[in-house]
Amino acid sequence: MSLVVPASAVDMAANKGKAVWFISPTQTAGYVRRVSEYFAAAARAAGMTPTVFDGKDEPERFNEGIDEAVAAKAAGIVMWAIPPEAVPNALAQAKAAHIPVIAAATGVPNPTNGTVAETISVNLEQEGAALAEVAAAALGCKVDAAITLDTSQKALTSEAAAAKAELAKLCPSTCKSQEQTMSLATMATALGPATQTLLQREPGLNALLVTFDTAAFYMAPAIAQTGHHVLLVSTDGLPENLDLIREGKQAADISYPPAQYAGWLMLDQLGRAILKAPLTNPELPMHIFDKENLPSSNAFSALWPKMTGYEAAFEAEWKS
């Protein structure tokens, strides 16, 4: 991946002292937790005061988080993986209070009612298709897959649908798929046993296509305990999953940009929205890691050599 930062300067110093909120659907999923941490770091670097709200995978709390941000007179809000239709009243209150909201990874287009200033995401259809393509290539277009997702997360359902559609297009007579549903709230304790049960019930399965890395991390040891040889592919690019690839326990990872960069990008776009500056509507890039191209180290400079120096690149644009 190449480093991409907005080409236009903005007077981010004008936001100094302002409060910004990051509404997370859960902090149990590794990628969003890391993005929220780096969003907070970027906010502090810009002289702003960050708050990260944990939705704990409870939809009613998503509204509470936005409501609390509005009550606290936040200058701006980032909402991650929460579809706008799940929080319409809270978004309407933010709009009425003139608080811009940046949405990320929602799985739906930017709403047209002005409650969301911008939606940032990877191309979910491309991401899901890549899951299917990796499996089809590795298994000679003879894929019997389970696609693992939390159906309460719209972005994950979009990704899973794209994976299923791509298998149907690539090899309709020799590939098939089913869903393995799970919950973020119980993932740490329930997903491993559920995966073992699935593999015992469906011995013909030869691929598990997982819509986010933390789920795959919990599934890998459960798979090993069954002795079942199954292709494990997931998305996000978390360091612990890249280690699984090196250990031969995961085949590939459809990686998002590093969470460090994503967190700073979210703060950059939110800061511009607060200042009513033009937004760049970036699409997050992806990269496929497997044993053939994965560096031996998880060092940032090894995995993302063209993205080193991202902090300085953003800060250079934060000057009028």
Would you give an account of this structure?
- The protein has 320 residues and is an alpha/beta fold.
- The chain has 2 domains: 12-120 and 258-284 and 306-317, Rossmann fold; 124-255, Response regulator (Rossmann fold, 3-Layer(aba) Sandwich).
- Helix content is 42%, strand content 17%.
- It has helices spanning 30-45, 59-71, 88-96, 124-138, 154-170, 187-201, 213-226, 239-246, 259-274, 300-303, 310-317, and strands at 19-24, 49-54, 76-80, 101-104, 118-120, 144-149, 176-181, 207-210, 231-236, 252-255, 287-290.
- The strands form 2 sheets. It has a 6-stranded mixed β-sheet, sandwiched between helices.
Shape: globular
User: How much helical structure, as a percent, in the residues?
Assistant: 40-55%
Do you know the CATH topology of the largest domain?
A: Rossmann fold
- Pick out the low-confidence regions: none
Average pLDDT, rounded to a whole number, is 94
Describe the main β-sheet briefly: 6 strands, mixed
CATH class of the largest domain: Alpha Beta
Which structural class is indicated by helix and strand composition? alpha/beta
Q: State the total count of DSSP E strands.
A: 11
Strand content: 15-25%
